[in-house]
Design a protein that fits this description.
The complex is a heterodimer of chains A (about 700) and B (about 70). With about 700 residues, chain A is α/β, with parallel strands linked by helices. Helices cover about 65% and strands about 5% of the residues of chain A. Chain B is an alpha+beta fold and about 70 residues long. Chain B is built from two helices and six strands. In chain B, strands 1-6-2-3-4-5 form a six-stranded antiparallel sheet. The longest helix of chain B is centred in the middle third of the chain and has 10 residues. Classes of the chains: A alpha/beta (about 700), B alpha+beta (about 70). Chains A and B meet through helix 4, helix 12, helix 13, helix 16 and strand 9 of A and helix 1, strand 3 and strand 5 of B. Strand 9 of chain A pairs antiparallel with strand 5 of chain B.
Amino acid sequence: MGLTFQSTKNSSLSDIFHIEKSENQYVIALAGNPNTGKSTVFNSLTGLHQHTGNWPGKTVVNARGEFKYEDKDFILVDLPGTYSLFSSSVEEEVARDFICFGNADAIIVVADATCLERNLNLVYQIMELTPNVVLCINLIDEAKKKKIEIDADGLGKELGIPIVLCAARSGIGIMELKRSIHEVVTKKVKPCPNIVIYDEYEETLNRLSIILDEYFKNINPRWVALRMIDGDDKLIISLKELMPNEKINAVNHILEDSKLNMDKQTVRDIIATTIYKRVESVTERYVKNNVKKINRDRIIDNYITSKRFGIPLMLLFLAIIFWITISGANYPSALLSKFFFMLENKITSLFNHLNTPDWVHGVLVLGLYKTLAWVVSVMLPPMAIFFPLFTLLEDLGYLPRVAFNMDHLFKKACSHGKQCLTMCMGFGCNAAGVIACRIIDSPRERLIAILTNNFVPCNGRFPTLITISSVFLISAKGNDFGILPVLSVTGMVVIGIIITLLVSYLLSKTILKGLPSTFTLELPPYRVPRIGRVLYTSIIDRTMFVLWRAVIVAAPAGAITWILGNIFIGDLSLIGHAASFLDPAAKLIGLDGYILMAFILGLPANEIVLPILLMSYLSTGSIIEFDSIESLRRILIDNGWNHLTALNTMLFSLLHWPCATTLITIKKETGGLKWTALSVIIPTCVAVIICLFTTVIFKLFGWA
Amino acid sequence: MLKLHNACIGSIVTVEDLSSTGLLRERMLALGLTKGARVEVIRKGPSGDPTVFCIRGAMIALRNEESSLVTVQ
């Protein structure tokens, strides 16, 4: 193609990170430690014009947004949260490469005012790369509460870059930040970073910089020189590919000539220590820390992460969330379904008025519309309650504590501590949970987390679990407080977690052998959640996302099910034939043919399993309206359900194969059919074995 | 030779040396576990592992496997 290796290499690196922009546009990168409220700054700057959903792991891919200030347009790129630029993880590599090879006009570094010492380390590293840095010290309100005083003017002069104090959650400092960026890109203010000097290496660095200068126009030559003496080999090789041979020789010559101890590890230690020494002295001078002896977070953590209360409290929170969800969703669900059935009657009389053929009415109203109505009225209220509550816990900073409490179990299962966080995401949507597994660096442990994510009941399966347990435990006992269903749903989640740990352990001992890899977990300070933000992300980003997906799958599935249920061969409908074919196998595991078939037809989305099941029951028997829990119970009992059927349907729903969306995501994330196939086979086997087990137990004791 | 995982809860220790290598060493340096850094031992998890440390003002949990690689004083 006429391209030399060098030129392709050069352009491929910059192509990946090159952001298309027009003349009056500037690209701004947003960098910073994890947990500094970077996403809040991003949202405050762009006014929620974000192009990706708000799921963790999203920032492994750079999120983008736009904003305007005076006459200029800005494209804001949200880089993954990182502690340093030395690529000890995928996130760090992405952030570093974007800053190095991307075309950002300026970098905003977001720092946590309550933890400035650790954050300044990254600031110094980024200042070595580019002078166009604006430091945004966020969470200044939290710092005030903790009586931390920051001398921003002094610190700004010391660092040589503009500093903006900011509390992005309440919008404080955002205009100043925009102005500051504007001043930097329009060169009204020229930052002049006061970078760290490494006494041992400066002479070598100067000599190297002179040679490197002509090849790295966009990257600071001193930074390249630094990486030549301490960097990872991968980076050095790709940097050297940009230079002709004789220059590489000259570089090597200087490196030999310098007679320094060029053991990389020692050099890295010295450089890291020197930066932190500087940071220490800077924070000592400009940050006044009037440490309160009573530390709120630590008192809370005394309970939340204590030996005795940690895990019981976690289960209690989970149960409370389910309790609020189940008891709160009943009433709006009933209202919605009443509304939809009223509408159905109106539509039916319209169809009658227009003299449409019966089958059209059947497909469109009895099939498509009824399933849709069911999905919306049953799924929307619980989701609209569950997701905000869950997001609230997330916003409070509770999830890392869960990971901390559960870590010893994951360690015993030889899997990664962050697997717990990916499971939390699975509660929302398993496909999102699988994507979130990107936060796990080790490929072995990532695969384990991906293959087992399905054992966490996603939002599509919660309605099934909640409905079945309400049907069999509320009405039967006349218990309106919903304690029993809450306990059974919580119990299902616990079973899911136990199965996850067991399967992870078995995988670690068989096809994915290995020891747990190292990880560090930060427990961020507790933060008062912003209710508006919580509602927005949970309702718009999550509830609507999941509901919309369910709706577009449920509509055609409802129509098809109706057609299958109304085409007769002999005296049985197609559904009847399929169900009677599956029945013997299903009976073995305590289900019936219709239930098993509903799970198979529900492959596109778990949300539609119950509607399909009901429709198949109804299409064969007499038509009953299922407008209340009581009538639902009657339908199920008329079709031969008992407590074993209910239990096994819940277990099967919890443990069976992932939905099609999750499978497609698994294929994308693992890049192989083998792992996708395994992600079907493993859960299916587990589901069958467990259901077989409960059936045998029930039969032995004569319960069913 | 006191290792970080043996340090008493509530004590404040000073980092002497790291015996970790590769990515873990990088991560530890990035978190601020450099020579001379002061680390407070906060608490142990439900089964005695992992342990939470206060490193440079941030709460960081490390498993025993990792904290045993940090020599402290």
